[in-house]
Amino acid sequence: MSGIASLEIDGKKYDFPLTVGTENEVAIDINTLRSVTNGVTTLDPGYKNTGACESAITFLDGEKGILRYRGYSIEELAEKADFLEVCYLLIFGELPSRDELQKFHNDIREQSIVAEDMKKILDGFPQAAHPMGVLSSLTSALIAFNPSSVNVDSEEDMYRAIVRILGKFPVLTAWTYRKRAGLPLDYGDDTLNYVENFLKMMFKKPHSDYKRNEVVSNAMDKLLILHADHEQNCSTSTVRMVGSSHAGLFVSISAGISALWGPLHGGANQAVIEMLEAIKADGGDTKKYMAKAKDKNDPFRLMGFGHRVYKNFDPRAKIIKKAADEVLNDLGIDDPILEIAKGLEKEALEDPYFVDRKLYPNVDFYSGIIYRALGIPVEMFTPMFALGRLPGWIAQWREMRLRKEPIGRPRQVYIGENLRAFKDIDYR
Ligand code: ACO
């Protein structure tokens, strides 16, 4: 490869350097495009072809179905690591030693106290408020109770902000659920690991002891690992974009939560179960819904199918499908929704519409099924995704600040009115 890309505009040729990543991904560096061409820009709605940054955190190859965090395959991490190790790996770049992991966990525990006044903010929300909106607001409000801004040139400051959010976010997530469920707000148990502690904070009833269930906590751990990062997706790009204005870590993450909420992104896991329930209520006719999904005049889409970057299979979906089978077997769950899910999956995998467009079940198709089996209410599915994605958002925010990236500011192609004279109100 020449290392140069040439572009011809109106008969004039311009050369741009190629940038090659460590996995041989090639990008045309168009940094100078506007200045050398006198204002020509690129147009790429949805950023399908635009690399917004260089990043050393996550590698994914959508065609080959590869996902790696810091060079480690998702398959190996899901099998051998726990969520906190993966958090450390994503954020700091290496797997922690035993001592590093212990210190990290202790520091997170230390920072897991949430100011009592935060409960008043939570109290102000209607009980039926969607947990993602509540969680985004509470995460943003954290800054008011922890006002010192992060000096990104200080490793210590950066570390403190990171363990703070990792400590407080599970508490906020559990509180958001408990408020909705009408349960008293509580703290966790320092003797438990990160994930078990979270589950206890979620499900402990005021009148009985919480019983640990290893199958549940292992499945949850795996789910969180699978969701921990996914390079420059919508919510992560949002975190980097907001952070690029030098807004703090907590508010950048709060913005990421809002982006994740949408049904085309993190909200898809909730949408999957709602779709399956609607199909069941309508008599369970999967063929009817397959036809709706293919009908271009019908806005219905098969939720949990398709992915912007995975065009062959979603490697996370493979792992999670196996975990879903294990959990359902171990817990002895017989769920009619599952039969509908299996029917849709089978039909879609054989249907030319889905095969031709390379639409396969994505991670959300199965994650909703596991969450449901674990007793997580449907409106908490997307907050669970947020909890899993938290280390990815932190890692990406940290990388963006340490690399001193410029403020994010895309261009546009203006297609509105040309200059026109102001019309007096009587003549409009
Ligand atoms: N059901 C039916 N048709 C679909 C679906 C679907 N789920 N997804 C895509 N298509 C069709 C489109 O209508 C389009 O058809 P056309 O070429 O005839 O016009 C074609 O497949 C390509 O679709 P795009 O929307 O261009 O694909 P894109 O990459 O932009 O979108 C997305 C990806 C948003 C995930 C899409 O597949 C979708 O809406 N899926 C359902 C929602 C979902 O599961 N989201 C979770 C994503 S994973 C995550 O966020 C963790």
Counting copies of identical and different chains, the oligomeric state is single chain
Question: In what range is the share of β-strand residues?
Answer: 5-15%
The residue ranges in which pLDDT falls below 50 over 5 or more consecutive positions are none
Biggest β-sheet, characterized? 3 strands, antiparallel
H/E series: EEEHEEEHHHHHHHHHHHHHHHHH
User: What small molecules are bound in this structure?
Assistant: acetyl coenzyme *A
The count of β-strands is 6
The class by helix and strand makeup works out as: mainly alpha
Distance between the termini: 59 Å
Average pLDDT over all residues: 93
DSSP helix fraction: 40-55%
Number of helices: 18
The largest beta-sheet arranges its strands as 1-2-3
Globally, the shape reads globular
Cα radius of gyration in angstroms: 23 Å
